[in-house]
Design brief:
Layout lengths: L1 E24 L5 E24 L6 E26 L2 E12 L2 E2 L14 E2 L2 E14 L4 E13 L3 E4 L6 E4 L1
Antiparallel strand pairs: 1-2, 2-3, 3-4, 4-7, 5-6, 7-8, 9-10
Length: 171
């Protein structure tokens, strides 16, 4: 029987990103086109180990021992179009790529195997937006209508650990 367990976890994540954007105005009367590009890089490093003390033993036994690192990178474009028919009426369209870096879960509760994958992958999204806005009554009333659509893959979800207690980031 298991009497005790010791855990050591050191997870380090760092990143760098840059973004640039250009807008062309008056492509034709009232129309602006914007294009942007972001580069994102993140690196996660994991150093994890646990040791178990079984009944009748004097020393802990190493069970899981993992040292891993993974870099996640993405180019993230954005395009938008704005049409202003006058000071009170406009239409906006936007398409952009979204991203969230992957990483590592911080503790293992899976004791049926010494081989456990703590990593989860990055998620990627395409975001679409269409909006219409209008101002009325000498700018005393304004309204906007927006429609959004997001198409994603490998979504990172915080879900119950299938091996037992706690929650894990999972794709």
């Amino acid at each position: 029987a298991l009497d005790n367990a010791k855990y050591h976890n050191n997870t380090v994540t760092w990143g760098i990103a840059g973004y640039g954007q250009v807008t062309l105005k008056e492509i034709w009367p009232g129309m602006s086109l914007t294009a942007g590009l972001r580069y994102d890089y993140e690196k996660s490093e994991l150093n994890y180990r646990d040791s178990l003390l079984f009944s009748g033993q004097q020393q802990y036994t190493s069970y899981h021992d993992s040292k891993e690192d993974k870099g996640f990178k993405a180019w993230l474009p954005k395009f938008s179009l704005l049409q202003r028919w006058n000071d009170n009426l406009s239409l906006y369209l936007s398409v952009s790529k979204g991203y969230k870096a992957g990483g590592y879960n911080i503790i293992v509760n899976e004791m049926s195997s010494q081989v456990v994958d703590l990593r989860y992958d990055e998620e990627k999204l395409w975001n679409y937006e269409l909006s219409f806005s209008q101002r009325l009554m000498d700018n005393r009333l304004s309204y906007g209508l927006n429609v959004f659509y997001i198409n994603g893959e490998n979504l990172i979800l915080r879900l119950p650990n299938p091996a037992g207690s706690g929650m894990l980031n999972q794709n």
